[in-house]
Amino acid sequence: MAELRYTIGSRLPKQFKIICSKAQKKSKLMRIEVICTGDEILSGKTINTNFAHISRRLQEVGLPLTWETTVGDDKEELVRAFKLAGDRADAVIVNGGLGPTKDDLSQDVAAEVAGVELVLWPDWLAKIESFYAERGRAMPPNNRKQAMLPAGADLVDNPVGTACGFQIDIGKARFYFTPGVPREIYRMLEDQLIPRLRELFGVQQVNYLKRFHSFGMGESRVDNLLSGVEDLAPADAVKLGFQAHYPQLETKLAVQAPTLAEAKALVEPVAAEVRKRMGTVIMAEDDETLEGVILAGLRAIGGDVAVAEVGTFGHVGMRLAAADPAGEIFRRSANTNRRHDLATLLDLASEDEALVENAATAVRVQTGATHGLAVLVDTSGARDPQIEIAIATADHVIRRGSNLVGNGDRVRVGAIEMTLDSLRRLLTGVPVTEALDFERAPK
Fold first, then answer.
1. Domain coordinates of the chain in residue numbers?
2. Which long-range contacts (CB under 8 A, 24 or more apart) does 53-58 make?
3. Biggest alpha carbon distance in the chain?
4. What is the pLDDT of residues 283-319, one digit of tens each?
């Protein structure tokens, strides 16, 4: 028998505590539970990124969770989980179990616990058949199962998949059933679930999150640096928080207001002070990425870039290539794990101490790019510095050496970020060689 696992009374991140408590006072009492299904989730074979995304987004829009339950593909345990949630929660999101196979049990269990029969939705069956016809394939017979919903349920549209979402009351709770495919639940969460939950609980306020992405300062230093910054807004209006995911740090300003325009107006003086205090370590804001900022900077000057890398497994070039799929700005990456091989690839005479500068120049000249970016990473501990970076233009070459704290993968990941950030700094006119918190002090 599969194990039933749940977490009661989960705590919110500190930056959302006051905001969410205010939302609850102004709205009906909100007890929201998420039930994630699947043996692969329960066993840990698949990391449950869906729950993390759902929880984060609901908290951001003033709909904090109270419980999370994970259940395997076991009918008896699913029945118990649905009954328990229907008794204690006001709203429940069930994620997974809407597929066409025998271990997809959510529709069957929902109908059983609600005390109704499963019925065919002809319109959804037609959508599934059309989905396969457009691809020149016959619909497998078991896909008919995805158009069977509990009688009396309301459809929750899934515009990007064949699994039909639905809504039904079980016990005293409103249940929303969603597929486990990430891109499907992410879309349905924004288009369907958040609006329905906001209406159900009478949440009128708008939640806004301003984000800053930085590299070079640790969380504790930034926390100290930004002490008192919230006081630039009315009392308790803006909350400061952090999320560290090395090598980047995300600094967040959370606010709740009647309208989005009012929320942004409350945040702006605080955001301006954050920019002033953090300065050059801020690489990007909100949905921007470091590589996106680099490409935008190059595009603005009619530039482009080619990369030479040793010891990074090609990740500098990969990140730029992924952000520039049309290949308008990123030219190519010469990638190896040995200095000698890079010298051979670029037809350089030697692999001496000037290799990183020569590689940056060679890759620029050979591709005709305006900028050549080179990085050499040595995680063996035999060399100092462990990281060598160079940026070549038609006019000059800038070199930056570093010995990051850590070893192996941590140094490699930090080197990739530092390499990209060095180019970002050059393009935005800030010092390329500024000392970072993650570097060892010179001996």
1. 4-201, 206-285, 290-428
2. 53/182, 53/185, 53/186, 53/189, 54/93, 54/95, 54/185, 54/189, 57/189, 57/190, 57/194, 58/32, 58/194, 58/197
3. 79
4. 999 999 999 999 999 999 999 999 999 999 999 999 9
